[in-house]
Amino acid sequence: MWISVSWHTGIVKILVTNDDGIESPGLHYLAEELSQHGDVIVFAPSSEYSGAGTAIGHIGGGVPSVAKMQRPEMPNAEAVYTVDGPPALAALLACRGAFGFMPDLVASGINPGWNVGLAVHHSGTVGAAITAHSLGVPALAVSQHSVPSDNGQQWAVAARAAASLLDEAFAHRWPLNINVPNTGADDDLEVVWTVPSDRVPWGFHNTELVEVADGRFQIKYEHHGPYTNHERTDTYAVEANRISVTPIVTSVAASTAGLAGDK
């Protein structure tokens, strides 16, 4: 059952997680920005889980350890916890009542590097949002392109972009994958609704096994290979200095369903 949230008329509980771990500045910026819009509980992996997708790990022997801590980077968070597991597990536990309530929203990020194209199937950032959505909780994943910048990663820009799309996240029937260009705060960024391109994660192309010893191989591949980049895709939008918002519809059909902006 979908939660109905009138978040403008009451305090909401926002669960913030990521796949880069508790030390990531992107997590800190996102939690602090969203603290202006609700009660933020941070529940992030204790270490990096990039590429974990929706994996929750092998928990046959029990749920991994959870620790509560104080983090000066997130002074306005109601509480900060870590889990020795991937972000989808954090979302799963939180959405099943680990903290004594159901979150009104799960926000995952900010990932340093875009999660576009076919990466949505593998991204731990997106995986946490998909997991929350499957349990009836509105969710968004936010990533920022990591092209070189004179001022480094513009985390505050991406955090504000995520906050500006809270209404959309609460209203939309699908989790939202938000990708923000790495650009200065003074830029007026247009928000566009997109579909995933066919960009392969990490640009893997022409992979082959190269034998380096008897029975031992290395993988050789072309990095940053080509991809289709028509103007409705997420890659096109970000490369054109726009904020891409992609509803994560289904695992395979998203890039061809033509559902960008459909609610």
Give a brief description:
It is built from 6 helices and 11 strands.
Question: What tags apply to this protein structure?
Answer:
single chain, alpha/beta, Stationary-phase Survival Protein Sure Homolog, Chain: A, 6 helices, 20% helix, 24% strand, globular
Structural class determined from secondary elements: alpha/beta
- What is the CATH architecture annotation? 3-Layer(aba) Sandwich
Number of strands: 11
Helix content: 10-25%
**Major β-sheet annotation:** 9 strands, mixed
Which CATH first-tier class would you pick? Alpha Beta
Overall 3D form: globular
How many structural domains can be distinguished in the coordinates?
1
Fold and architecture overview:
With 263 residues, the protein is α/β, with parallel strands linked by helices. It has one domain (13-196, 231-255): Stationary-phase Survival Protein Sure Homolog, Chain: A. The chain has helices at residues 25-34, 87-95, 124-134, 155-164, 166-171, 234-239; strands spanning 13-17, 39-45, 66-69, 79-83, 105-112, 139-144, 176-180, 191-193, 205-213, 216-222, 243-247. The strands form two sheets. A nine-stranded mixed sheet has the order 3-4-2-1-5-6-7-11-8, sandwiched between helices. Strands 9-10 form a two-stranded antiparallel ribbon. Helix 1 runs parallel beside helix 4 (155-164). The longest helix is centred in the middle third of the chain and has 11 residues, at 124-134. The chain is globular and about 55 Å long.
